Amino acid sequence: MTPFQRIETTATEEMLPAILLRVVSELHDVAYLIERIEPQLLDLSGGAIMASPEAMKVLQGIDLAVQKTRGIAEFIDTIAGTMPEGWTVDLATALSLVKLTEMQKALGGGSFHVHSQPMAKAAGDFDFF
Question: Model pTM?
Fold first, then answer.
């Protein structure tokens, strides 16, 4: 038996591969949100941003952040796909550290989703929290 294996699960214990797949989904959401920054910066600057070497470094940093986030998601997805189904983990402590309620729900057993972020919102729309 490994440290992650249990004979039966309690209310806060869940199958580790399922948890990892929810983390993968959240990472894809993060990549999507980061990716949306670049066109907004280009729209705000009117293209002048392309002339600045420092601004180009920022845009390249945005691209790199998206690539790294997606790469980590794919890495975790691959690990989760090869992991034995019987492994469980207690989520209580980990979930207590997550401050965003929606992310806490998604990681803590909420429904598996493709994207938790709205794909299209009108300019000026926002959520109060």
Answer: 0.70
